[in-house]
Amino acid sequence: MSSLKSRKRTERITNALCFIALIFLTCLCMLPIWWIFRSSLMSNAELFKWPPAFLPPRWLFSNYANTLEYFKFWTYLKNTMIIIVPSVIFGTITATMCGYAFARLRFRLRNFLFTLCVGSMLLPIMVTLIPLYIMWTKFFNMSNTFWPLILPYLCGGGAFNIFLIRQFVRSIPRELDEAATIDGAGYFRILLNVIVPSIKSAMIVVAMFLFIQIWNDLLQQMIYINTDDKFTISMGLSQLKGSLKTDWSAIMCGTCMSFVPGVVFYLLGQRYFVEGIVMTGMKN
């Protein structure tokens, strides 16, 4: 009896220590975000004081209004959403269809094509950057448009996303497909009614990966977009840093406004994101 009480006491102490360590690590991770937010509410003179203040001496929310006068946040957000919305929607759909095909359908060269698909992840983006630029601008005349940033995601959404969906589909028992086939369902009906409800978390993970990838894809956006009225948030923030130089308060304001939509999108799908990452690669 005493050994049982001792074991329970040890478990409680261990759980308490783990909880304290988790809180400490969380605070460390949140510290840079707080530091950016705190800096956005201070003047430039206050930013360079030593020792630095953990809390702003004055909460200057007017910094955001002043920054919005030359940081066209709503225009940049609209342009970013024009790229992200169709890319995420169709990229998730096509990744699901490709992953289902590789996991369930039997066709010639299936394994070879899947090997090429996965192997393309090892190809550095710099290798294809110039050929793709020549193709989109010279052959298709799509310079300074959003199409070169949208169309590549309409064909599977990327090799990693196809691989992720395939692993999830492989974890679903084939007996469900066979039962649906006996009831007269075809491949497309099985995909919609059997597979998609079972891999909803994986599809949300793919959508979130696509969102983050496109949101942070400054390199390709700078290559294909040339005019200020089509700038995305990443490009606008880059221009803000380049033009203001020493106005760090405004730069911090622009940074805070830039990562808020991504944080909101992550919070909406956080539960499915964690579930999808944990279950990736598991197979019944």
Automatic annotation (TrEMBL):
A family per Pfam:
BPD_transp_1
The cross-references to InterPro entries, in alphabetical order and at most eight, read: MetI-like, MetI-like_sf
What are the protein's UniProt keywords? Answer: Cell membrane, Membrane, Transmembrane, Transmembrane helix, Transport
Q: Please state every residue range assigned to the domain named ABC transmembrane type-1.
A: 77-269
Domain of life according to the entry: Bacteria
What membrane topology does the UniProt entry give? Multi-pass membrane protein
What Gene3D superfamilies does the entry give?
MetI-like
Q: Where in the cell is it found?
A: Cell membrane
Transmembrane ranges? Answer: 12-37, 81-103, 112-134, 146-169, 190-215, 248-269
The family line of this record is:
Belongs to the binding-protein-dependent transport system permease family.
Tell me the protein's name: Carbohydrate ABC transporter permease
The species this protein belongs to is: Faecousia intestinalis
